[in-house]
C-alpha cells in the first residue's frame, strides 16, 4: 500500500500579506456600499445597485492593492440576497488574486465563536475571506476558535484594539491589574505571533488601531511593534487620518501599518479606472511615509 500523500501546510496570511504589501504598497482599500455612496454613484439602493457597486470595486482594486476590505454590514442590510452578493464579491477577489479582509467584527464565546470562525475562516465556506476582523471584548481568549482555525487554514485575524470612536476609551483605556485593556489585547496578539516573529515573518494576527487616535498608542503603552503583526489603521482620508500623521501615531510600529481608506477612494467612482487611479495614489502616498521605515 502506497503511503498517504502529505498535504502541504498553507502559506500563512502574514507571509502572503507581506508579499502583497511589498508589491502594491501598504493600502487596504474598502468596499463600503452604504446608501449615500450608492446614490453618489448614480446607483439604486437595491441589491442590483449593491452588486454593481461591489463588483466595480473588485474590477478596480483587483491586482492593484495589497488588500481589499468589504464591510459586511452594508451587504447584510439587504438580507440573504445581500449576503449572496458578498459571497460573489469574495469569490471575485479570490479570482483576481487579491487578499480579502472581511470587516465583520465578530465576537462571542464557545460554540458560537466557533460558528463564526467556520463561517468566515473555513476552507469549505462560501463566505471565506483571507482575514476577518474580530472583537476581543468578551476576553481575548474568547477568540480562540477563530485564532486556531485561522492558523490551521493560513488565514488572518485582525483584533479590535484601539478605536477612534468616542465610546471606545471607556473600555479600551480602562486599567486592570496595572495594564490597560488595550495593552492586554496587544499582549495576546504578541503571544499568538511569537512563532512567526521567531521565524522573521510578519504575524498573521493583526491589531486594529484607528489612524486618528493621536498619542493614545504611546500613552497607553501599546507595544505594537513587539506584537509582530500587521496594524490595520482605518480612518485615512474622509475621517481625517493622513499618511504623514501615521508617523506620530504609530512611532516604531509604522513599518507594520496597513492603512485603510474607504470613503476617500470610493468617492472617485463610479468608473473603475478612476477608482483604480485613486487607490494607486493613496497606496503611493502611504508607501512614501511607511515603507521607508521597513527593515
TrEMBL record:
CDD domains: OMP_decarboxylase_like (cd04725). InterPro entries: Aldolase_TIM, OMPdecase_type-2, OMPdeCOase_dom, RibuloseP-bd_barrel. One of its GO terms (biological process) is 'de novo' UMP biosynthetic process. Residues 26-278 form the Orotidine 5'-phosphate decarboxylase domain. SUPFAM superfamilies: Ribulose-phoshate binding barrel (SSF51366). One of its GO terms (molecular function) is orotidine-5'-phosphate decarboxylase activity. It catalyses: orotidine 5'-phosphate + H(+) = UMP + CO2. The active site is at residue 105. Keywords: Decarboxylase, Lyase, Pyrimidine biosynthesis. Pathway: Pyrimidine metabolism; UMP biosynthesis via de novo pathway; UMP from orotate: step 2/2. Its EC number is 4.1.1.23. HAMAP family: OMPdecase_type2. Belongs to the OMP decarboxylase family. Type 2 subfamily. This is Orotidine 5'-phosphate decarboxylase. It comes from Phycicoccus duodecadis.
Amino acid at each position: 500500500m502506497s503511503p498517504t500523500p502529505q498535504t502541504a501546510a498553507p502559506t500563512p496570511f502574514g507571509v502572503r500579506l507581506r508579499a502583497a504589501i511589498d508589491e502594491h504598497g501598504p493600502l487596504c482599500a474598502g468596499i463600503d456600499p452604504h446608501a449615500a455612496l450608492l446614490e453618489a454613484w448614480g446607483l439604486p439602493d437595491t441589491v442590483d445597485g449593491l452588486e454593481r457597486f461591489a463588483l466595480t470595486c473588485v474590477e478596480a482594486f483587483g491586482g492593484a492593492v495589497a488588500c481589499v476590505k468589504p464591510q459586511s454590514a452594508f451587504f447584510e442590510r439587504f438580507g440573504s440576497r445581500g449576503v449572496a452578493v458578498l459571497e460573489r464579491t469574495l469569490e471575485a477577489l479570490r479570482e483576481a488574486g487579491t487578499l480579502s479582509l472581511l470587516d465583520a467584527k465578530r465576537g462571542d464565546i464557545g460554540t458560537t465563536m466557533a460558528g463564526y470562525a467556520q463561517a468566515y475562516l473555513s476552507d469549505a465556506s462560501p463566505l471565506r475571506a483571507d482575514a476577518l476582523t474580530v472583537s476581543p471584548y468578551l476576553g481575548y481568549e474568547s477568540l480562540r476558535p477563530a485564532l486556531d482555525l485561522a492558523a490551521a487554514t493560513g488565514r488572518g485575524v485582525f483584533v479590535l484594539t484601539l478605536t477612534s470612536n468616542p465610546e471606545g476609551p471607556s473600555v479600551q483605556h480602562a486599567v486592570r491589574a496595572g495594564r490597560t485593556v488595550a495593552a492586554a489585547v496587544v499582549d495576546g496578539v504578541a503571544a499568538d505571533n511569537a512563532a512567526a516573529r521567531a521565524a522573521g515573518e510578519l504575524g498573521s494576527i493583526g491589531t486594529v488601531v484607528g489612524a486618528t487616535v493621536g498619542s493614545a498608542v504611546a500613552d497607553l503603552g501599546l507595544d505594537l511593534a513587539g506584537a509582530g503583526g500587521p496594524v490595520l489603521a482605518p480612518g485615512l482620508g474622509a475621517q481625517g487620518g493622513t499618511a504623514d500623521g501615521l508617523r506620530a501615531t504609530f512611532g516604531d510600529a509604522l513599518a507594520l501599518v496597513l492603512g485603510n481608506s474607504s470613503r476617500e477612494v470610493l468617492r472617485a467612482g463610479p468608473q473603475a479606472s478612476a477608482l483604480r487611479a485613486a487607490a494607486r495614489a493613496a497606496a503611493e502616498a502611504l508607501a512614501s511615509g511607511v515603507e521607508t521605515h521597513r527593515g
